[in-house]
Every structure is written in C-alpha cells, then in structure tokens.
Amino acid sequence: PPLIITIDGPGASGKSSVARRIAQALEVPYVSSGLLYRGVAYQVLRHGVDPDDETAILRLLEAHPVRLVPNTHGNRVLAGGEDLTPHLHTAEVDAVVSAVARHPRVRAYVNERLREVPPPFVVEGRDMGTAVFPHAPYKFYLTASPAVRARRRARERADDVAAIEKMLRLRDERDAKQSKPAEDAQVIDTSELTLDQVVGAIMRFLPA
Ligand code: C5P
Q1: Distance CA 195, CA 182 (A)
Q2: Which of 170, 186, 190, 193 has the lowest tally of Cβ within 10 angstroms?
Q3: Is the domain 1-29+120-208 a CATH 3.40.50.300 member?
Q4: What's the predicted TM-score (pTM) here?
Q5: Which CATH class for the 32-116 domain?
Q6: Measured between alpha carbons, how far is 24 from 141 in angstroms, rounded to an integer?
C-alpha cells in the first residue's frame, strides 16, 4: 500500500510538531488537515457567513475554493491567489472552527482536498486514520491531559493558560464525534514525554 502515516489526536496534543518531525526524518511532505478546516473557518468569518449554515458555507467554498499546499516544513492554505496561513492560528478561528467542521459536506470538501495529495506523506488531524485514510499502513493517536495541552498551547497564544484550557475542553467536546483512535492505531500518551521521545516512539514502528 502507498506510504501514508496518520497522526490523530486532540488540539495541542503535539500532533503537528510530531508529524512535521516524522515527515522531515522520512523526507516526505507533511499534511495538516486542521489547517484546511481553519482556512474554511477563516473564510466563513471574513465573509460574514453563518457558521451553522452548511449550504452557505458550501456556496462560499464554490466561489472561493481553499487549497492546501503541503510540504515537509509547514503547510500553506490558499484561497485564490491569497495566502491565508498567517491568519489561521488565532483565538477567533479557534472559537468557530469546530462549528464549521461539524458539517458533513464541509468534511467531504476537506477530505477531497486531502485525497488529492499524492503519497507518500504524513497527515495529521482528528479522523485521518478512521474516516479519511482507513487503509493507511501506519496509524498513531496522540493524547495528553487537558492541563498539559493548555500549557503547550499557551506558548503559541497570547491568552492565559486557564482561558486556553477552557477553549481546548470546549473544542474536545465539539470534536469528540470525529476524534477517535482507529482500532489499529498505536495510542501514545504524550503528557510525560518530550517531543523527541514521542518522535522516537513513533519511528520505532516505521520501516527503517
Ligand atoms: O488540529 P487543529 O487544532 O488545528 O484543528 C482545528 C480544528 O479543525 C479542530 O478543532 C476540529 O474542529 C477541526 N478538525 C477536524 N478534523 C480534522 C482536523 C481538524 O474536525 N481531521
């Protein structure tokens, strides 16, 4: 089967840093599905579309398609000629992205974009090993306690840890339906592990 490595887990579980490192080690592209959802959410905010209106969001995506540019070091999300990437990791996008991502047709749109990417690659998200790439030969699911995740995220956001933990728990709840380990995924609790240790634990499962 084509080499696809899926790394799923909740927000701030370390999946993007880990996925990037694995991709670099294997010299294959890294693909962030969350960034695509963030791109859609950003467009919804900017164009004043109701996040609960699935049909309106699909119409928006038809008029302004979003596109993922995967590479080993980081991903970009483009809409037309515009690079949305610098606007996607903000509290405003965090607050609305789960509502946008819960619509089946939005998920189908994102999944189509992801399946256009030619393997090999490392892909991270919530449902990469379950819904999107069920036949991937290597699957991982990272977990960590909400407190640990909030502390990690606090290094990237201006808000205080308590506010971040609250938002993470809220997103966990809203994302719960599409965030489960695949039955054949290796589950790794990263709470007590460094980034290097998590990368090492995953590399042991991969072909040399
Ligand atoms: O991974 P990240 O935290 O950037 O994802 C942002 C949001 O996108 C998640 O909170 C979730 O609502 C949505 N998402 C999803 N399915 C994925 C990846 C992300 O629903 N595979």
Answers
A1: 22
A2: 170
A3: yes
A4: 0.91
A5: alpha beta
A6: 19
